[in-house]
């Protein structure tokens, strides 16, 4: 098949993908456009597709309206600790399930996989009761501890470790390498893409968390970014332009993180899929 013929056959598929991408970009476009509109224009009906007056001062006003820097610091702290916890604990658990030899390993793996099918919201009440009984309510521990490891992270690491050749482990054991050193010096460095994937996904999930922080915190100084956006909703109404400006500021770090790591993240998801 010639190159022009092949391109002609794939043209409808490419056009459909382009149209789909444009549709998915509409909410993002509307968010950015509203973020640079004056309040009167942001509330105008019918709405304008492009601002008549561009107000970049909305971003500065949004930062002054609420302690935005504190919200970002809280979110970075909780998301960073959660992501690191998923990498450390998830890798250790995944290695044990992939390379360990102990009774009940298959049953334990089954429980891990079964927990993936349980919606996260279904665990909020028991987790909340546990946090209350431990005296962690309204603290950073309440925001971080329940999410330090997830079944998805464990399973992803387990698949990655299973894809490594057995000869590497046999050679290391013949050299007198302990199991912990085998994990640290041989296995873990070979699954760097998986580690980055787990870190990025855990970071993004925690960055976007809203309902759990709302349940376990009440002090304004412990608010995370998604809760902080409610500061632009008052009894007199919603400052739509400032809300969208703050939302843009909260989205940019995640977009930059994913844009710089997307190839390794995709590679990490596929790591271990083929053995």
TrEMBL record:
Cross-referenced SUPFAM superfamilies? MetI-like
Q: Of which family is this protein a member? A: Belongs to the binding-protein-dependent transport system permease family.
- The organism is Kribbella aluminosa
Which InterPro entries is this protein grouped with?
MetI-like, MetI-like_sf
Alphabetized, the UniProt keywords read: Cell membrane, Membrane, Transmembrane, Transmembrane helix, Transport
Residue spans crossing the bilayer = 12-32, 71-95, 107-128, 140-157, 190-216, 236-259
Q: Where in the cell is it found?
A: Cell membrane
Taxon lineage:
Bacteria, Bacillati, Actinomycetota, Actinomycetes, Propionibacteriales
Q: Where is the ABC transmembrane type-1 domain?
A: 72-261
Q: Which domain of life is it from?
A: Bacteria
For membrane topology, the record states: Multi-pass membrane protein
* Protein name (Swiss-Prot/TrEMBL): ABC-type glycerol-3-phosphate transport system permease component
- One Pfam family, please name it: BPD_transp_1
tRNA-binding as a keyword of this entry, yes or no, is no
């Amino acid at each position: 098949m010639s190159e022009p013929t092949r391109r002609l056959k794939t043209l409808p598929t490419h056009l459909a993908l382009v149209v789909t991408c444009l549709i998915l970009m509409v909410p993002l476009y509307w968010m950015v456009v509203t973020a640079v509109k004056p309040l009167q224009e942001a509330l105008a009906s019918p709405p304008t597709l492009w601002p008549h007056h561009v107000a970049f001062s909305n971003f500065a006003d949004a930062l002054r309206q609420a302690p935005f820097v504190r919200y970002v610091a809280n979110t970075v702290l909780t998301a960073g600790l959660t992501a690191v916890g998923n990498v450390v604990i998830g890798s250790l658990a995944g290695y044990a399930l992939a390379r360990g030899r102990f009774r009940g390993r298959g049953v334990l793996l089954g429980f891990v996989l079964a927990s993936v099918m349980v919606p996260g919201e279904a665990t909020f009440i028991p987790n909340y009761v546990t946090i209350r009984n431990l005296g962690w309510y309204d603290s950073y521990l309440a925001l971080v501890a329940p999410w330090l490891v997830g079944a998805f992270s464990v399973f992803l690491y387990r698949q990655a470790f299973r894809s490594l050749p057995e000869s590497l482990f046999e050679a290391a054991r013949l050299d007198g390498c302990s199991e912990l050193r085998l994990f640290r010096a041989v296995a873990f460095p070979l699954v760097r893409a998986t580690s980055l994937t787990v870190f990025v996904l855990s970071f993004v999930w925690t960055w976007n968390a809203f309902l759990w922080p709302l349940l376990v915190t009440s002090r304004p100084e412990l608010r995370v970014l998604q809760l902080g956006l409610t500061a632009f909703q008052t009894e007199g109404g919603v400052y739509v332009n400032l809300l969208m400006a703050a939302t843009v500021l909260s989205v940019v770090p995640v977009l930059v993180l994913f844009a710089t790591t997307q190839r390794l993240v995709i590679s990490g998801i596929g790591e271990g899929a083929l053995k």
